[in-house]
Amino acid sequence: MLSVVTMRRPARAGFWSIRGPMSQRTYWLLAALGLVVPLACWWILSAQGWVSKVFLPGPVDVFHRALTWSMQDKLLADTSISVYRVTVGWLLSAVLAIPLGLLIGTFRPVQAVLEPLTDFIRYMPAVAFIPLVMLWIGIDEGSKIAIIFIGTFFQMVLMVAEDVRRVPTTQIEAAQTMGATRGEIIELVLLPAAKPALLDTLRITMGWAWTYLVVAELVAANSGLGYAILKAQRFLQTDKIFSGIIIIGMIGLLTDQLFRWVHRLAFPWMHLKR
Amino acid sequence: MSAVAKIQARKLSKIFGDPPRAVHALDAIDLEVFDNEFVTLVGASGCGKSTLLRIIGGLDYHTSGEIAVSGKPVQGPGADRAMVFQHYSLYPWLSVMQNIKFCRRLKAGRSNLTSADVEAASGRADALLNVMGLPKVADAWPNQLSGGMQQRVAIARALMTRPEVLLMDEPFGALDTQTREVMHDLILHVFNLERATIVFVTHDVEEAIYLGQRVVVMAPHPGRIDSIYAVPLPARRTQDMKHTAEFLALKRAIVARIRETSGMKTDLEMLERL
Q1: Cβ–Cβ of A177/B92 closer than 8 Å?
Q2: How many Cβ atoms are within 10 Å of B11's Cβ, its own excluded?
């Protein structure tokens, strides 16, 4: 005889369970909250007038400043020259870092010769290179690109090498026992296997390239977002500093999302729904 | 048994590292594997069974002695000795069919390219796909498949080059018992079809007996061959043979040898003294 069991709701993973599940809706809701709440706090803080506008302009002031910047000043020109500098500096390091990192990650002798040196240089502050860069390259576009290059290249080389090293050895050995030559292993195994990680590395280093923009535009610039921020500092235009920083942040967010979209498109086998 | 030795090891030794911390992975191994023979290697961990397999495959180098396959000394890996690994050897960016046909992308697999060869290769890929029960997933990516299915793809890919010797390094070690039994019958079926020579490394004694015509028991510290057992079962194996008296007696004998050589016994004695 079966006894009557009181119906109970099946147990569910709690909200705070470690690595617990979460619905798409809840995720986006919380993500929106994470953006809106700081914005609201900022707005309230500045609207109350507790803090002087010179120290903390409100979101409305910042938005207005961005508008006038785009109407009267040359926001578009500043943005495009900065995007150009960052992109060229970053592209230049990518073009050199990918083959070099591939060699370091593939051949131990290359690793032994180049990795300690790269490790050494990457700790040198990019800002400190400004006088040298001015001396060597001058004060044209080249010097700004060079600063961004110095800031990203050495990190990128090491990250690319690590991406290549993380390709499972069994994938290489399987190719060897099918008769693959060294060149074929690099072309048909190492590169395609490392590609998704390489794209992630490019995405992350693009972010770093942007952080070097203001530093790069310290060098005799008369245009660009970083330059505009530095100039605003001189005139205590805090609202302009804020809008410049936020615009850079938004450009970063946009490129990041673009990279993620390309990743999903290029490597569909990595984004399978289970 | 034919007198032609497909694989011949003479006084084969392998030492990892330099003294005083040198590890004697293999010590004076003498072993002959004959044409069309299925030999299994078992032993406690550290007995060098995988190292021996990798030396035959040309993926590791021996320190002294001789190793020859088809009468030629082994010098690096080659398409005549295909290898199946425990996991992570498939190329996740290629479909199942592209994985199986991977060797056709290599120079070694394209040496004699007539249209008839291409057709034959494509026919062989289809045939292997069918034998392995994979036709429905030909266009799937490896990480859409279960572990057992992935190993079927790995075996099909290894067979694609028509290797003279198939080397298998605990290929079913990560699979559950039911899947493993299915894989056992599958690999025996393939062995009868292809008439290759197979060397199979495992730590599972039952697996070693069920698959092998001879079971080579290895012992650790230093890695060496302890004993070789001929399996007294008919060539066509069926699952119920696992319950016969001969099978169980052989299993008991081999397990006892492994226990004796692995230092397990002393451990138990020590436990009793506690």
Answers
A1: no
A2: 12
Does residue B106 sit at the A interface (CB-CB below 8 Å)? Answer: yes
* Domains of chain B and any CATH numbers: 5-80+163-273 (3.40.50.300)
The answer to whether B11 and B30 have CB atoms below 8 angstroms apart is yes
What is the ipTM for the molecules in this complex?
Answer: 0.90
- Please write the tens of the pLDDT for every residue from B182-241: 999 999 999 998 888 999 999 999 999 999 999 999 999 889 999 999 999 998 899 999
CATH number at residue A109: 1.10.3720.10
Q: For A66-96, b where at least 16 C-beta lie within 10 A, e where not — what string? A: beebeeeeebeebbebbbebbebbbebbbee
In the prediction, which pLDDT does B77 show? 94
3-class secondary-structure state, position B80? coil
Report residue B2's pLDDT band, with 50, 70 and 90 as the boundaries: very low
**Nearest residue in chain A measured CA to CA from B96:** A269
Residue A127, pLDDT score: 85
pTM of the predicted model, to two decimals? 0.87
Q: How many domains does chain A have?
A: 1
Instruction: Tell me which chain A residues have a C-beta less than 8 angstroms from the C-beta of B141.
Output: 269, 272
From chain B, the residues in CB contact with A177 under 8 A are 57-59, 77-79, 81-83, 158, 167
Q: Residues A60-74: what's their mean pLDDT?
A: 88
pLDDT at B109: 66
B195 vs A258: CA distance, rounded Å: 53
Chain-chain contact of A173 with B59 (C-beta, under 8 angstroms): yes
Q: Are B221 and B46 in contact (CB under 8 A)?
A: yes
Supply the range of the domain harboring residue A211. Answer: 79-225
Min Cα separation A178/chain B (Å): 4
pLDDT value at residue A6: 66
Q: Do B102 and A178 touch (CB under 8 A)?
A: yes
